[in-house]
């Protein structure tokens, strides 16, 4: 999900119609008309209960009307006209009703804007506009707070400070500021996209049981037969305010059946694409060369020795978390270890965080230009982010 905002069409800024409520059906929808054609549209379409044209002067008072959009029956709507050239239509949120209201506005001479284009027009600061769009997709209060900080200028101020330092010839200060921003890119890119945490390992290590324990409900089928999990099974959860997608995979092992081989391939692909890989082993089984090979293959994985409520199997094993999917008290321990890997240094309130791929690319480009002794080009690259 990408909150980048396309620019609004300049020719569409005189008379526009925008659906401000969330995409999809809802109980209520809000359409916003802007421009000099509003009075004409009101005279043409707004009717009182008697069927006579309704007058809607600017002011704080909402009016209940029947809005004639060309259908078999007018649509009941509440009109709010805060200014001469602004009109909000609050109506039934059905998709067909909303679309017909928009089409009626288009027939009256209004140009349709997406809500993202409307934001770009309303917000003079492009970073604030992008943050405001991203807020629509924030999954938790914690990530929303961080995006609000960017909306209120945290990132803009940090970029301005770095660009100013470059223009003053203080490359060391600019480099330090850019390094701080770059260090926050992984976190910023997961404010609306969950972290991908993959559970992998040998068959029957208890991966599905762990997924169920971490989600708090029976998301995955659990069975003692090897190969029960063949497809990727996922669930999105929240841990300490951070959105996380947990992904259960098939046991990694040689497989003869084509379906099982496909499951193993999916597991290996997911393991390589994970933000964090948890390699799960059965602590009650002997530690052998196959398990050793898995740990060598994925050296960055968080090792988790499951089934510690059973007798330990023979053989020395590498250090890792020793837990049981059947003990509720072990769940916080697992989450603590996961969060230490994903967010080892949580941001402070008001800290600047690059939160889109474009913003991250600009910071990285500026650092690269500075490394190549091009401070003016680096400053220009940063200031480009600040221009509407």
- What value does the average pLDDT take? 89
At CATH's second level, what is the architecture of the largest domain? 3-Layer(aba) Sandwich
Lateral strand order in the biggest sheet: 3-4-5-6-2-1-7
**How would you spell out the order of helices and strands?**
EEHEEEEHEHHHHHHEHEEHEHEEHHH
Largest sheet: 7 strands, mixed
Coarse morphology: flat
- N-to-C span: 22 Å
- Helix amount: 25-40%
> For the record, what CATH class of the largest domain applies?
Alpha Beta
Instruction: Give the CATH topology of the largest domain.
Output: Rossmann fold
Helix/strand structural class: alpha/beta
Beta-strand fraction estimate:
15-25%
Spans where pLDDT lies below 50 across 5 or more residues: 8-12, 225-229
Total discrete domains: 3
Rg is 28 Å
The H-level CATH homologous superfamily of the largest domain, spelled out, is P-loop containing nucleotide triphosphate hydrolases
Count of helix runs: 14
Number of strands: 13
Written account of the structure:
- The protein has 388 residues and is of the alpha/beta class.
- The chain has 3 domains: 10-122, 2-Layer Sandwich (Gyrase A, domain 2); 142-184 and 356-386, no CATH class; 195-342, P-loop containing nucleotide triphosphate hydrolases (Rossmann fold, 3-Layer(aba) Sandwich), CATH 3.40.50.300.
- Helices cover 39% and strands 18% of the residues.
- The protein is built from 14 helices and 13 strands.
- It has a 7-stranded mixed beta sheet.
- Strand 4 (63-67) and strand 5 form a beta hairpin.
How does the SSE layout of this entry go?
Blueprint (H helix, E strand, L loop, with lengths): L15 E4 L8 E7 L3 H8 E2 L15 E5 L7 E9 L2 E7 L2 H13 L3 E3 L1 H8 L3 H10 L5 H11 L2 H14 L3 H13 L1 H4 L6 E6 L6 H9 L17 E7 L2 E7 L9 H16 L2 E7 L6 H9 L4 E5 L14 E2 L8 H12 L14 H15 L3 H9 L5
Parallel strand pairs: 1-7, 8-10, 8-11, 11-12, 12-13
Antiparallel strand pairs: 1-2, 2-6, 3-4, 4-5, 5-6, 9-10
Helix pairs in contact: 3-4, 4-5, 6-7, 6-14, 7-13, 13-14
């Amino acid at each position: 999900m990408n909150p980048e905002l396309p620019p609004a069409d300049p020719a569409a800024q005189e008379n526009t119609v925008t659906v401000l409520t969330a995409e999809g059906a809802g109980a209520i929808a809000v359409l916003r008309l802007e421009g000099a054609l509003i009075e004409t549209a009101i005279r043409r379409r707004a009717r009182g209960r008697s069927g006579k044209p309704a007058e809607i002067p600017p002011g704080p008072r909402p009016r209940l009307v029947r809005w004639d959009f060309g259908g078999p029956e007018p649509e009941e709507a509440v009109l709010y006209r805060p200014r001469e050239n602004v009109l909000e239509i609050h109506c039934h949120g059905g998709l067909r009703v909303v679309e017909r209201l928009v089409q009626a506005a288009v027939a009256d001479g209004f140009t349709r804007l997406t809500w993202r284009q409307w934001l770009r027009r309303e917000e003079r600061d492009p970073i604030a506009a992008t943050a405001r769009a991203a807020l629509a997709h924030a999954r938790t209060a914690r990530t929303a707070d961080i995006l609000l900080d960017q909306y209120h200028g945290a990132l803009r101020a940090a970029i301005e400070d770095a660009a100013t330092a470059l223009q003053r010839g203080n490359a060391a200060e600019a480099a330090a500021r850019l390094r701080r921003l770059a260090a926050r890119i992984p976190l910023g890119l997961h404010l609306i996209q969950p972290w991908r945490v993959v559970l992998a390992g040998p068959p029957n290590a208890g991966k599905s049981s762990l997924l169920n324990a971490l989600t708090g409900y029976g998301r995955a089928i659990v069975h003692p037969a090897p190969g029960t999990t063949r497809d990727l099974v996922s669930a999105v959860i929240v841990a300490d305010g951070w959105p996380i997608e947990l992904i259960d995979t098939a046991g990694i092992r040689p497989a003869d059946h084509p379906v099982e081989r496909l499951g193993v391939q999916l597991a290996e692909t997911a393991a390589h694409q994970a933000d964090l890989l948890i390699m799960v082993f059965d602590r009650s089984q002997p530690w052998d060369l196959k398990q050793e090979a898995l740990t060598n293959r994925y050296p960055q994985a968080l090792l988790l020795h499951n089934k510690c409520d059973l007798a330990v199997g023979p053989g020395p094993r590498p250090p890792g978390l020793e837990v049981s999917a059947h003990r509720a008290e072990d769940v916080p321990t697992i989450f603590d270890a996961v969060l230490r890997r994903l967010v080892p240094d949580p941001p402070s309130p008001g800290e600047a965080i690059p939160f889109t791929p474009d913003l991250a690319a600009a910071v990285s480009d500026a650092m690269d230009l500075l490394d190549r002794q091009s401070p003016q080009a680096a400053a220009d690259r940063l200031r480009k982010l600040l221009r509407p």
